[in-house]
Amino acid sequence: MKTVDGILEESQKTKLINDYFTYDDIRSSDYMRQFKDTFDWISELDIGDFEKDEIKMRNIFTKSIVPKIVYDQNKDEIVLLEERQTLISKKLKDSNIEQKERENLFRERIEIQERLRDFIVQIPYYEYHKYYKKVYQTYGTVNISKYEHIDIMNCQYDIKGFYPLNYENIGEDAMMF
Predict the structure, then answer these.
(1) Which of 168, 171, 135, 173 is CA-nearest to residue 154?
(2) What pLDDT, in 10s, does the model give residues 25-61?
(3) CA angle 103, 107, 108 (to 5 degrees)
(4) How far apart are CA 84 and CA 116, in angstroms?
(5) What pLDDT does 171 receive?
(6) Lower Cβ count inside 10 Å, N or C end of the chain?
(7) How far, CA to CA in Å, does 103 sit from each of 21, 64, 66, 86, 111?
(8) Secondary structure of the chain in the HEC alphabet?
């Protein structure tokens, strides 16, 4: 890639792939060795044949949340978007609206949903589970659509991303008993 500068035509992209990404080049790469080792390890596993501590795989499940600080900073906009979405849904139930207006309303509703999703953060599912296991307080939801509701979660969140709460310092009034 160091030999490339600027926008490439499709034929140039194809030539690069054919020149540098040959099976022989990839087969002997560190990536393929690591992939083969992992694949062989997984292939040899028998379900129930190992202890929990022996598992070398990480939990990659996530949960969508809206950090409370993000919600608080954008509450007015979020509430307006949710209200507009409700109004659009009511209008769409009217069988007398013209097709063009119906299409515009659908398009606007999708744009609203996308804007609401801008406030979402993905966090590890185990952090979400730990939060709801230890903290009883909830802050509501952001309604993305009729069937998609995202929890507002109190957590540390800044430009660097999500940080879990320090549950030992939360205080007795926020802990479940």
Answers:
(1) 135
(2) 777 788 888 888 888 887 877 766 666 565 666 667 8
(3) 115
(4) 12
(5) 52
(6) C
(7) 45, 29, 29, 16, 12
(8) CCCCCCCCCHHHHHHHHHHHCCHHHHHCCHHHHHHHHHHHHHHCCCCCCCCHHHCCCCCCCEEEEEEHHHHHHHHHHHHHHHHHHHHHHHHHCCCCCCHHHHHHHHHHHHHHHHHHHCCCEEEEHHHHHHHHHHECCCCCEEECCCCCEEEEECCEEECCEEECCCHHHCCHHHECC
Tokens of 83: 């209200």
Q: Model-level pTM?
A: 0.60
Residue with tokens 């979405």: 85
Give the separation between CA 65 and CA 154, rounded to whole angstroms. 10
Residues 149, 142: contact at Cβ < 8 Å?
yes
